[in-house]
Amino acid sequence: MIPAANIMGGLGEGGGGDPRADGNRGAGGGFGVRATPAGMYVIDDGRVHWEPALNLNAVILGGQVVALMLFFTVRTLARVFADRRSTTVRRLGSRVGLR
User: Fold this and answer.
1) What per-residue confidence (pLDDT) applies to 31?
2) Paired strand residues for 16
3) CB of 41 within 8 A of CB of 50?
4) Is 18 in contact with 24 (CB distance < 8 Å)?
5) d(C-alpha 43, C-alpha 51), whole Å
6) Fewer CB within 10 Å of terminal CB in the chain, N or C?
7) SS3 of residue 99 by DSSP
8) What distances in angstroms separate CA 6 from CA 3, 12, 74, 76, 81, one per listed residue?
9) Sign of the CA dihedral running 72, 74, 75, 77
């Protein structure tokens, strides 16, 4: 098995000073790295195949987004049908003189 990862990094630096104050200067820098598992190459009986890593956090987040969209869709449809029904009842009531 040969593991593989997605690796990202970045660095930055800077410096400066206050032109009004003599000797007031500053400088700094930083470096950051992020690594996430991508999967692994599995060598089995001389054959190589790729096994992707499962990002459970992404799966859970995707499920939550789908559930939220479903909730808003059902809520909107319920409001639309309720408005149509109340409009129809009012229209029918005015025809028979039931205001």
Assistant:
1) 93
2) 26
3) yes
4) yes
5) 11
6) C
7) coil
8) 11, 21, 38, 40, 48
9) positive
**Is the pLDDT score of 72 beyond 60?**
yes
At 75, which amino acid appears? Answer: R
Q: Which residues contact 7 (CB under 8 A, 6 or more apart)?
A: 33, 34, 35
Domain ranges (residues) in the chain: 1-53, 55-99
Distance CA 48, CA 41 (A): 6
**What are the residues whose beta carbons fall under 8 Å from the beta carbon of 98, sequence distance 6 or more?**
none
For 26-60, write each residue's pLDDT tens digit: 889 999 999 988 999 999 888 999 888 888 888 99
Task: For residue 2, give every residue at least 6 positions away whose Cβ sits within 8 Å of its Cβ, in sequence order, or none.
Answer: 40, 41, 43
Say if CB 32 and CB 68 are below 8 A apart: no
